[in-house]
Amino acid sequence: MIGLMSGTSLDGVDAALVDFDADGQPALAGHIHHAYPSGLADQLRAVHGDSPLRTVLMLDARLAEVYADTVSALRSATGAARGSVDGIALHGQTLWHAPAADPPVTCQIGDPSRLAEATGIRVIADFRQRDLAAGGEGAPLAPLFHAALFGCDHRRCVVNIGGVANVSVLAAGGQALGGFDTGPGNTLMDAWTRRHLGAAFDQDGRWAASGSVDQGLLEALLADPYFRRPPPKSIDVRSFDLAWLARYRGTSERPADIQATLLALTAESLCAAIDEWGGAPEDVVVTGGGALNAGLRRAIAGRLAPCPLRTGDELGVPASLVEAIGFAWLGRAALRRDRLDLASITGARRPVPLGGIYPA
Description:
The protein is built from 13 helices and 13 strands. The chain has helices spanning 40-46, 53-78, 112-119, 127-133, 142-150, 187-197, 206-209, 215-222, 225-228, 242-245, 255-277, 294-304, 322-335, and strands spanning 2-5, 12-20, 26-35, 88-90, 93-98, 105-109, 123-125, 156-161, 164-170, 176-184, 283-287, 309-311, 356-358. By secondary structure, it is α/β, with parallel strands linked by helices. It has two domains: 2-141 and 320-358, Nucleotidyltransferase, domain 5 (2-Layer Sandwich); 153-315, 2-Layer Sandwich (Nucleotidyltransferase, domain 5). A six-stranded mixed sheet has the order 3-2-1-4-7-13, with helices on both faces. A five-stranded mixed sheet has the order 10-9-8-11-12. A two-stranded antiparallel ribbon has the order 5-6. Helix 6 (187-197) runs antiparallel to helix 11 (255-277) and helix 11 packs across helix 12 (294-304).
């Protein structure tokens, strides 16, 4: 199974070729990262609720081409024959996630029909929509595959830090007890870095380390009602953007101080959520692009101490590939028509199969 993940950080596509044993345990057989073509990330970032339908449809088709190129590159890198691949599990690119709307909606683009036609491989997509239809938040879905990848004999939390950060709460024995979005992950730090440095991200949090946390601003940001809302909960990445940040004022005007404060916001909101709803874990595993930020890891580890912080890489799963592997896991479950129980995670009313199947 091939898993394709393009997250809210908009840096490209992570593709994983995944084998499964008889018990459904995944093993990574190969992977690539396919960067978005020049300008595509900016086009996606510019999409908003009032964007013309034509713009969205053109991006939907363009992304399918990018995903097809990614699959071709992965097959070339691994030598995987087309007939040996059971399917392509496609998350798509999230444009809008509004579980509190009436009716609740979520939108991921990257036309699965075009992808199936271009690759000659069936595609499994639209994973979040069925959970919404069943009364769930549509996110996070990660706790189910975090349990498969990282379940162990003790209580554990698994954190994914992409544009948004989320946490999965695992019982001793590996069962997923819950999970939710904790707040901003990389999104604000990346946006602030783009504005002031013209770079895609703050490498290892070095710019943040050159500044000082504005405690007054941090406290004001943490007063946002989302952080106090109990699970189940999920949020759109645009809920924590520079327009949101501009509503607050601190004592410092130095951009580096603001960056330090944004890093502290991600770390503190995440750790506070684990404190309140994480079930007293014996360790915490961090994955996603944020796991590659050494400064952010240090901030989280210091806040969680003495609870140990580990990375997915330490446990044999590359931190940046966990979601791609996870969607391959969800793709396999869809082909088996497994009914997945997300009641304690998203609030879904009943177990339902996730994902629509698009034959080649």
